[in-house]
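Hi,

I'm pasting everything inline rather than attaching a file, because the server keeps stripping attachments. The sequence lines come first, and each chain or strand is labelled.
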Amino acid sequence: MPSLKDLRNRIASVKATQKITKAMQMVAAAKLRRAQTAAEAARPYATRMETVLANLATALQGREGGPPLMIGTGKDAVHLLIVCTAERGLCGAFNSAIVRLAREHINRHLADGNQVKILCVGRKGFDQLKRQFASLIIDVMDFRGVRQLAFEHAERVAEKVLALFAEGVFDVATLFFSRFRSVISQVPTAQQIIPATIPAETPGAEAALGGAVYEYEPDEADILAELLPLNIAVQVFKALLENAASEQGARMSAMDNATRNAGDMIGRLTLKYNRSRQAMITKELIEIISGAEAL
Amino acid sequence: MTDAFKFELVSPERLLLSGEVEQVLVPGSEGDMTVLAYHAPLLTTLRPGLLDIGLPGGEHRRFFIRGGFAEIGPAGLTVLAETAIDLTELEAGQLAQAVKDAEEDVADASEDAVRDRAQTKLDQLRQVQATLNL
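And the predicted assembly:
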């Protein structure tokens, strides 16, 4: 049975924790709003890019060959997994969910006899993956000092991936991140970026064309060769932004839970504290009365 | 008085400008071109340079853009630039940095093809610098 003083101390400490989680929740809410605006602002570019790529791909269909970024190397022996996670913890199952999805893929590829390489973007993913797959991780990039994600950060990741691809280090690249659906729902997603998956015949592409035939300057193949690397950067950027929004969303609901838990705990502890205080008073009274009676 | 058409300037980070314009000078990789209303559908890559937008009413807005492409369709003109900075916000330091980066690219390039491309980029950036007198 803890003493009254112990109980008082515990209540005070839980209250302090509650204050911290409450503050973190509010910070996450503010950051979430910013991350969401950033993600929305980036959407027009990505959609346009997809439309144009789809148009180009249709125009080039049926021709011999094509850039390796689009058709691949013809093998799928070595897989590169780009695992994007957060830099910080305390955001519920956000990081573990992405890592779990990545781990499933790794195990499946290994079981199929394929080689796997991992590029970690974000420190938390690296921390979790290095326990099991330390030998497979080829590089870690972290953006810990970054306040607001800019396109150049995504470009840096894309440059690294493209350099590795040019060296023939891998055949297929898959991007792992968490898609932001709502504050309470973030979906870990795997997206193949090399070879590029071109949305075949999107209705939007057809409408944007409006039946018109484009002139290309320089020709289709050259434009495509220039756009495909750019597209990698755009996809990575999109993933990072979605991730940032998801992280804040996950942290917000995790901290909301923690605050509520702390509230419950304070309630329970206070009840216990009052009960034992009452018990002590009663005990003292009984002692006094029985003492008086004995006289 | 020329007809207005729809124009959008998009960078990966945000939509910078969207609205009706009269003419746009686009720094295409094959040469500068001025786009007016009813232009034929065209898709071109861009080189680093100045984008000059003529708004209805004779006002002009200028942007420094780097990389990306422009799409002219029936719906209007869309410029997707990797970087786009309003000239009124552009500082000499930013351009100097871009030139310095390009110089490093040239120095780092190991293959001829890569070096040629980097050199072209550098020349284009220097040209912009010269036009702006920064």
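The CA atoms of residues 42 and 238 of chain A lie 7 Å apart.

If the labels don't parse on your end, tell me and I'll reformat.
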